[in-house]
Structures are given as C-alpha cells and as structure tokens.
Amino acid sequence: MKLKISAILSTGLLFGCLAALGPAALAQSAPSVASEFMLKNGMKVIVKEDHRAPTAVQMVWYKVGAIDETNGTTGIAHALEHMMFKGTQKHKTGEFSRLVAELGGRENAFTNRDYTAYFQQVEHSRLEAVMALEADRMRNLQFDKNEFAKEIRVVMEERRWRTDDQPQGLMNEALNAAAFVAHPYHHPVVGWMDDLQNMTIADIEAWYRRWYAPNNATLVVSGDVSADKVVAMAERYFGSIPAKTIVRGKPQNEPEQHGLRRVTVKAPAENPYVILAFKVPSLRDVEKDQEAYALDVLSAVLDGYDNARLNDKLVRTDKVANSVGAGYDDITRGPTLFTLEGSPAAGTTTAQLEALLRAEVSRIAKDGVSEQELQRVKTQLIASQIYKRDSIFGQAMEIGVMEMSGLSHKNIDRIVDKLKTVTPQQVQAVAQKYFTDDKLTVATLEPLPLSGKKLGPPPGPLR
C-alpha cells in the first residue's frame, strides 16, 4: 500500500499516460477560458464553459476547513458538512439527495484541511434546480438535536474506520501531529475522538452561522452552460442572501523546527512502512516562487511516472522495497511537506529503506538531472494537464482549489508555463537545500499480528 498524508486532493503535478499525444491532438481538447463574476453580496461566481457533453457541474466552495479549527473544536468543519444534508425550512432530512437523484444527477461533499465543498453533476437543463437547492441550505439549514445525535455517531464511526482501524490512517495522523506542533494541520480533518464525543448541536450551528455566507463562498460551474445565464441564476438564488462579517482567528503559525523528529506507530498490519516528511515551501506567489516549481519537478523525477527513479532503482532493480513514493502538495493555505515513503521488501528494514530513499535525493543533489530526463517529465506534465481538463468535474475541482488557496484560477495556465521553465540546476538546488535532518519528521509503522483481522480498503475523501 502507498500511504498519503494529504487529504482529498493533491494539486501538485498529476502525471498521466498521454505523453504520446501530439500537440494537435492535445489542442483539440482544450476548453474555453473561465469567466469570473462577483455578486453584490460578495459571492464569487466562476463559469467554465465546455460544450462537449450536455452536462454541468455545480460546486460551492466555502473557505473554511480544519485549518480554521482550534483545540476542542477539531472535526467540526467535517461534522457540519454531514449536517448540511439534514434538511432546511423547505426541505426535510434526506430530501436534498432524493431530489438530486430524481433529476438524474449525482451529488456529494468533502472536507479538506483548507476548505469544505459541495457538488452536483446533472444534465445541463437541471442546473437551475440544484442551484436553488444549494442556495436554500446556505441560508436556511435546520439544526435538529435528534438528527445531530445520529449523525455525530456516523462521524465517529467514520473516524474509527478511516483512522483507528487503519494502519495508514494512524500513521498519517501521528506524522502530522509530530510535524506540526502549533499549526492546525497538527489536527486530523475528521477530528480527535474526544472532541467529537463532546461536540454539541450548538457548536455546529455556531460554526455554520460564522462561516457559511456568500462572501466566504465561491460558486464554480463548469460544463455545457452559458456564463451569462449562470450568473443570472446565481443572482436569482444566491444574490439575496446577506453577507456576513467573516472574522478569522489569530494566526497559529508553526515555529521553526530545529532537529529530526521521530514517531512510531504500532498497529495490526501486513507490512512495515516508513514516511519521511520534510518541511519545504509551498506556492504563494505564482511569478516568484520558483523553488515550489522545482520541488514539484523533483517529486516527478522521483515518482512521476512508471520508470521514475524511486521505483526503478529500489523496487525493480535492487528489489529492496515492495513499494515507494514521493509527494509534494504545493497549493495549500498552510505549510506543506515533501514526503518520501515506502514499504521495505523482505530482508530490508525500515531504517535501511529510510536511508535508501534519502540516498536517491542525495544522488540528485550531487549529480543533478539530465536535460533529457527533465524533458521527459515535462512532456508527462503537459499531457496530464490536458487529461485533467477532459473532465468537467476535474476543471471545476482545479478552479476551486486554486481559489481556496488564494492563487486565483486565472493562474492555472501560468503555473504550467512556469513548470516548463524549471532547469536541471534548480532541481538540484532544492535537493541540496531542503532535505536535511533539521526539517525532517519520520513516521515508522511497526506491524502487529493481524489476528485474523482483514483490513478494509484505503480511506477515500471525507464525507
């Protein structure tokens, strides 16, 4: 298994299998540029027209997530997400999902460290109906004690299934708690169990009243739609909802780390595992933060395609690992980590694999990467970006994540352009600069006997 420490979506390079496509084929699938509007109440509306199929995706993104929680309130963003399906003054519990299904659509929601989002995908003529439903629960959510009592038990069971009963969940939780001692990324998105057990319906309602407002939300619509008509509908359904004064908490900045940290997790598992997490910069300024692009490319050199360095060397050639990986989440509201991870093969210890993973980065720091290797990575990058945009849901996701991070959807193509300019020297420079003990947290899984217990599938997005 390959463990991931990021939640919901990684917005670094997504390397696909379309590298063989020529420029003409790639250009044919490029959708239109997104249009942006602002309602008088401060709600941003972004429309990405794509007329290749008669469907539409609506997403409402609230700029509030686990990053906005404090001690004692962890998990509340996710708990409210569950309650958003529990009825309004107009629609009873369960009616929202039933109505979307009757329209032939699909719907869901997800909570991340940085945001909470709700979506529906429907036949394009049904967009107005789901927009009316979404606007209703932005303004008129009901808070029933009995429904909350049932739903918070669902959330706690979700925590048990995703974390308490999953070695990868326990490991990710312990890693983040060790890497971040002050920043809210210390806390799991699902929340600590004690906080969930002591959460009240009043807590949930207060969170809703504080954060769920049009001026803290972005409406993203993609698909076979007209931007002018979408904006007119948004004005009709969302425009009358009053803005609120959004007061964000005091900064909970992470102090400087001054030495290696280690955490060990003992849990029933089939194989040991190790994750190395280095503190590195995230992308804040699209034009200036060249190191973030170099780190993205470094991640791809190590683990961006089938024959990338980690897998080729440690799994296929030397056979010292069953699986390996590298990851870098560059677009976040808070600090970020660059991870190296893997499961050692028989005869290799986690300590030995840890050293071997670091050796691959050290090799790049010493010898660099060739222009040929870098060009191969960039070809994969261009193809993967086009592949993402072949999905109207993927387009809406990309726009929403950019907006929630403060980078603006208008910079999506600019980021691709900047990635193309990364040089071998810049990749070598970040490999030399950031992969030291002083910024490193290591999490190790020591497997306990399974005792006949079968592990479930890896956890997916929180819902």
From TrEMBL:
Signal peptide: 1-27
Domain Peptidase M16 N-terminal: start-end pairs: 44-189
Origin superkingdom: Bacteria
Domain Peptidase M16 C-terminal: 199-381
Record key words, sorted: Signal
UniProt-listed InterPro entries: Metalloenz_LuxS/M16, MPP/UQCRC_Complex, Pept_M16_N, Peptidase_M16_C
Entry's family note: Belongs to the peptidase M16 family.
Protein name listed in UniProt: Pitrilysin family protein
Natural source organism: Herbaspirillum rhizosphaerae
